[in-house]
Design goal:
The protein folds into 2 domains: 56 residues, Arc Repressor Mutant, subunit A, CATH 1.10.10; 154 residues, Orthogonal Bundle (Tetracycline Repressor, domain 2), CATH 1.10.357. The longest helix has 33 residues. The model has no long low-confidence stretch (mean pLDDT 87). It has 10 helices and no strands. The protein has 226 residues and is mostly helical. Pfam families: TetR_N. Keywords: DNA-binding, Transcription, Transcription regulation. GO terms for molecular function: DNA-binding transcription factor activity; transcription cis-regulatory region binding. InterPro entries: Homeodomain-like_sf, HTH-type_TetR-like_transc_reg, HTH_TetR, Tet_transcr_reg_TetR-rel_C_sf. This is AcrR family transcriptional regulator.
Length: 226
């Protein structure tokens, strides 16, 4: 009789998978602590005064851990901006964001503008504080200047796509070009505009969203609401 041959996974393989999963989870938790600490320090102290060492202290980790988990100071800031733009823990292209999908599905121009006005109010609540820090730092930091100009161009490009979505409805003023429509929306969806009305003048985000919808409807629609 032939001897029975038993096959099995190498001893400890299940444990190794478990350990790898735990290490990934721990690394992600560390990364989240680092980014939360960076967000706090940038807003409290500004970009120039915030050091990687200060972020590390606030996160309860070594400075080398900050570099390993996210990167240098410009990388920390860039990651925070991308998260604020997407509203998630990862960067999401503009047309793939939830509000952009909802906007394209909206039945008419005013409904599209309503979706976008609400999205701008929510997005700028996250982004405007960071943008105010970025605006000041960009003059002295070439990497942040590139980030500033890159995001401005992305916004302008996204607004041209939004103008296309609006023009398809046939409900916009005939005397406005695609670029003029995009430019009008671009100027009013900025962090500066949000900060002036919500942060400095005390408007609620809801009032800001309502204002954007009313203003855009009056400025852009062929038959604005009465």
């Amino acid at each position: 009789m032939s001897p029975t041959v038993k096959t099995s996974e190498p001893s400890g393989s299940g444990r190794r998978r478990y350990d790898t999963s735990n290490r990934r989870a721990a690394a992600e938790q560390t990364r989240e602590r680092v980014l939360a600490a960076a967000h706090e320090r940038f807003l409290a102290d500004g970009y120039a005064a915030t050091t990687v060492a200060a972020v590390a202290r606030a996160a309860g980790v070594a400075a080398d851990t900050v570099y390993a988990s996210v990167g240098r100071k410009p990388a920390l800031f860039r990651e925070l901006v991308e998260r604020a733009l997407s509203g998630t823990a990862r960067a999401v292209p503009g047309r793939e964001r939830d509000y952009a999908v909802a906007l394209r599905a909206a039945p008419d121009a005013r409904a599209k503008l309503a979706v976008y006005a609400g999205a701008v109010a929510a997005l700028q609540g996250r982004l405007a504080p960071l943008f105010l820090v970025l605006r000041e730092a960009a003059a002295a930091e070439p990497e942040l200047a590139a980030l500033w100009s890159g995001i401005a161009e992305r916004r302008a490009r996204n607004m041209r796509e939004l103008a296309d979505d609006l023009l398809v409805t046939g409900e916009l003023r005939s005397d406005l070009s695609r670029d003029e429509i995009a430019d009008v929306i671009w100027t009013m969806n900025s962090a500066e505009y949000y900060a002036q009305l919500v942060v400095e003048r005390g408007w609620s985000p809801e009032r800001f969203a309502d204002w954007l919808l009313d203003a855009w409807s009056r400025l852009l629609l062929a038959r604005p609401p009465r």
